[in-house]
């Protein structure tokens, strides 16, 4: 009987150690995913900045300097595109549909910035408010909020971060 108790206790101890190990690995996987997502956003930000530099025709320089800037910019874009980072977010069908709609709205918002910056900024702020637990200001797009809430949690965070980055970028323009 005492031997049976010792064996059971040893098994429980082993199971407890295994569970602690799994818990630690789970935490590390979470950190790894967050770091990968941060790198993905950094890559997107760099590509966006490079695109802005390519589109900027107001820089006063000679043709040779402009050609050099263009060549370096293109080389950096190509190098940046060689970096592939992927984090897969599990989604059900409804989350896929909601994410697709949100992405379409954000693409429309990007286009809006080319035609009416002030209106696009107000719209982006109302979209961001829809993503925040405590909205800033009075304007919240409730339809957008409903779509975002239909997305997976990781997608909700990504949408919020994208809008925050977009609005922060506008402050420097």
TrEMBL record:
InterPro entries: BAG2. Gene3D superfamilies: 1.20.58.890. One of its GO terms (biological process) is protein stabilization. GO terms for molecular function: adenyl-nucleotide exchange factor activity; protein-folding chaperone binding. PANTHER family: BAG FAMILY MOLECULAR CHAPERONE REGULATOR 2. This is BAG family molecular chaperone regulator 2.
